Amino acid sequence: MFLSFRDENGSSLGWAVLITVVLGLAGCAKNYVVLLPNDDGTTGKVVVAGREGVTLLEKGREGAAIGGPAGKTFMVSDEQIAEDFGAALAASPRKPVSYLLYFKAGTDVLTPESQADLPEILAEIQRRPVPDISVIGHTDTMGDAAENARLGLVRARSTAETISQLGGSIISADRISIESHGEKNLRVSTPDNTDEPRNRRVEVTVR
Known about the structure:
The chain has helices at 15-26, 78-91, 112-115, 118-126, 145-167; strands at residues 2-6, 32-35, 45-50, 53-57, 62-65, 74-75, 97-102, 133-138, 176-182, 201-206. The protein is α+β, with helices and mostly antiparallel strands. It is elongated, with a radius of gyration of 21 Å.
């Protein structure tokens, strides 16, 4: 039997669906694979290929028997998923969670709205026994690209320091990675020298 994982554009599929398939295989007594939706309701695709041919799973909670007839799928209820894979799901690692925090123009000062999001980030970190955190700084296209690369790094460092201070002994500095993309990876595409608040941000990912 062969499994491949793809999103709707044919790219490699992310963690959420991959772990779903692994859980299906772990529950070999049930002998089926089920595709779970992501938290936002989207799904990728799973191709199950065996001696009988190929079966495509592309709907949330759609399942296929391992070694079953090609193309034959069935829907699996939440209750059945909980019964078959509940223990494995409970024991599986938490999925990475990402947050966007925004800054006042030209500074490493968070907006009041983003300041208010910090407790939620801290709570997510505290839910993980061994948290790993990455902070990536970004800017808009105002000014020089080299200066924006520096500003992105300043924002990332400032955010990491804030998270570490809030977390106290829970969050060690060596578990926070820091980098800057400057103006290279805009959230909102703009021409040069454009003041765009949504690009003045850091992305904090908690794993």
